[in-house]
Amino acid sequence: MVNTQKKKKKHFISTRTNLLFIVVFILFSTLIVRLGMVQIIYGDNYRRELERTNDIAISHSVPRGKIYDRNGILVVDNAPENAIMYTKQLNENAEDMLKVAEDLALLIEKETDKVQIWDKKDYWILRNPERAKAKITDSEMKKYENGKLEYTEIYKKQIDRITDKELSEQTEKDLEIIAIYREMAKGYALSPQIIKNKHVTSGEFARVSERLDYLPGVDTTTDWERLYPLWGTLKSILGKVSSSENGIPEEELDYYLARDYSRNDRVGLSYLEKQYEDVLQGQKAKVKHVTDKSGKVIEVKEISEGKRGNDLVLTIDLELQIEVEKIIEKKLVETKAKAGTDLLDRAFVVLIEPHTGELLTLAGKQLVKNPQTKKLEVLDFAYGTFTTSYNVGSTVKGATILTGYKTGAISPGTHFFDSPILIKETPEKSSWRNLGLINDLEALKYSSNVYMFYTAINLGKGHYRPNQPLPLDLTAFDTIRNSFSQYGLGVKTGLDLPNEQTGFKGPIKKPGLLLDLVIGQYDIYTPIQLAQYISTIANGGYRVKPHVVKEIREPLLDNTKLGPIVQDIKPTILNTIDAKEEWIDRVQEGFRRVMQENGGTAYTDFQTATYLPAGKTGTAQALYDGPEMKRFKDRGVLPPEVMNLSLAAYAPYDNPEIAMAVVVPWAYEGNKQHKASNEIGRAVLDKYFELKKKRNEIGIRKETPNQQVQILSTEIINNQLLKEGE
Questions:
Q1: Which run of H or of E encompasses 83?
Q2: Residues taking part in catalysis
Q3: What is the DSSP letter of 307?
Q4: Cβ atoms of 395 and 449 closer than 8 Å
Q5: What is d(CA 353, CA 362) in angstroms, rounded to the nearest whole number?
Q6: Cα distance between residue 185 and residue 94, in whole Å
Q7: 520: alpha, beta or left, given left = phi > 0 and alpha = psi -120 to 50?
Q8: What is the pLDDT of residues 128-180, one digit of tens each?
Q9: Could you tell me where the beta strands, DSSP code E, fall in 514-563?
Q10: Cα four-point dihedral sign 647, 650, 651, 652
Q11: Which of 8, 175, 215, 389, CA to CA, is 20 to 30 A from 302?
């Protein structure tokens, strides 16, 4: 009985064991079949899924194009500098970035002056997650968990509740880590961000380079900085470039992003750098970041090599520009020491080739009192030649005479008797002295106001009777202004720089003001408009567009040579004045007499000039509206009446190769006369022809063009360094 029960039990256990083995066998068989299917049937699909990558193209900035003067002398360059760069990975979290920042802080020194309070608080939260969490109440956390509070709201509460005492825990090394981290966090994923590019020592560069394998996203590279070898010269019109830190200005962000720029790209902010941004920016290097499924960069491939921006060759003659600036500065300082020059603070000179519009010199200087030392300093004010405007006085009388010819108000040879004009209820109007019976040529030579007044009266269909009202057809204002605009007065000249001003037209139309208009004492004009005006008369009646860029050239690796010409800027004629050739010849003769005949208003200053100049002087009563206006307003008084001085000239008179405008606003008050404009003009033209002679002698010595550039460049830099040393 017992044996039978044992046999039954043993048989039962054996059966269960067999069933278990069968089940295990089936499960293993199923698993093997499934693995086989995965490997054989779906293997390629899963392999492709695992190996799937994303290709992301990124553009890298390249150095900007260089700027040269007309003789090939370098004006703006790029200075290479060591840089430490960081590229944020896709899906990289703040903790990983902070670890990199901490490691970098052990290898480099980073200035902390730009660290802000919110940077410190952000860092405090990252370093103290539990303490930061404790700043949120249970009820606030419950609202957040229930979707009633956004994470940004929670974060803001944490930021607001960090105390000054808690921030004081941060050490100098913490601040350095924060400074590095804030630069890293500014960049977008896979967009390189400069961590440090100023004063990177060779030791820092080497230490970081040796540890790149342990610094994810960090790289060492060569960056560039805009370099101005002669910084004070042309400073205001060369313009500025944004830094890699500031990048694109916020107000222009959309414009540049639509043109494949990155937010931290450096762009031209003003004048030449801004006007020719498309030329100077260059072609970015493009690289492809290959990432795996997790977003990790597994390979970087170069798609296209970058190309430095094209170079600009200016029309400016750098050596002449520097010499003209010296002349202006010297005369300003000398004249400022005289009585009656309390408001004098600036002077301008424009030199232009009358047949091509090429600007050889665009110079302006301004005296500014240093608020600390209280001493006068001379600053570059070249952009004032086209952004500020003034009464230029009698220099416009050539346009008045030609307008008179064109309208029939006068004819060549017309005579008027120069004596004071007395209009009822109007201050006496006269020339600087009574000139008697004069014709048009004598009116220009002696600078007769009265002759111009009679021209305007005839143009306005008026009839002058002493001490009686003088009714005029006030449409004459439009007639005169339209005529003046043909010469460039009161309209934009077409200059290839931004922010050019048109001057200002007097808003009131009265007979007395019409008389002021024709002697340059009502509407106001820019110095470059005056230069275009005198050029138009000098070249026989063609208003030529002035420009500061002569050529655009491809960049070369050889810094001693200029690349092939991409674009040669040709002269552009904006209009031809509506005047007969003999009329223009007659005004040119009047201008010659001004400077070459005894009695001419510029004769005493130019009588010994061998280059045969012609031109017109100007003195204008003006209202002061300069930087000292606040002083007068604070005292509740009006500024004194000031006199503007100007000179428009060209040489030689019979074959003009150079035209010039000189403007000295607010030159003196009352009767404290001086002749700064004539003295500046004489010195400038002397220097122009002196340099021309010197360069002809260099040519005779048969140096190559490159050697000539080396000679000029060395002389310019040495002279400038000597000046700065003084």
A1: strand 74-87
A2: 394
A3: B
A4: no
A5: 12
A6: 8
A7: left
A8: 989 989 989 989 898 888 888 898 898 998 999 999 999 999 999 999 999 88
A9: 542-544, 549-553
A10: negative
A11: 215
